[in-house]
Write a structure and sequence with these properties.
The chain has no helices and seven strands. It is mainly beta. The chain is globular, with a radius of gyration of 16 Å. The model has no long low-confidence stretch (mean pLDDT 80).
Length: 91
């Protein structure tokens, strides 16, 4: 049986590049090597705004690709629009 968990990182500085990597272990404990590092930059200032209607179920991951915010998860609608587990926004 697989278990999934999420984490929220707070207290990040604006306009700063951050790198994240994972190392996982089991009950023995056996530890994996360090994962590939993902990186992204925080935005300058407070420019986030809520999506009208939000998602109807869990959002499990967010990423930015070519200037679009991509969300993935268990949701079936995003902002009152049908979305089958993936939704994208751009400026």
């Amino acid at each position: 049986m697989s278990r999934f968990w999420g984490s929220t990182t707070t207290g990040l500085s604006a306009s700063t590049r951050y790198y994240f990597a994972l190392k996982v272990g089991d009950e023995k404990p056996n530890w994996s090597g360090l994962s590939n590092a993902a990186s992204d930059s925080t935005v300058a200032g407070d420019v986030w705004s809520p999506l009208a209607g939000g998602m109807n179920l869990l959002v499990q991951t967010l990423t930015v690709c070519n200037g679009q915010l991509i969300a993935g998860g268990y949701f079936t609608s995003a902002g009152y629009v049908i979305a089958s587990r993936v939704a994208a926004w751009s400026d």
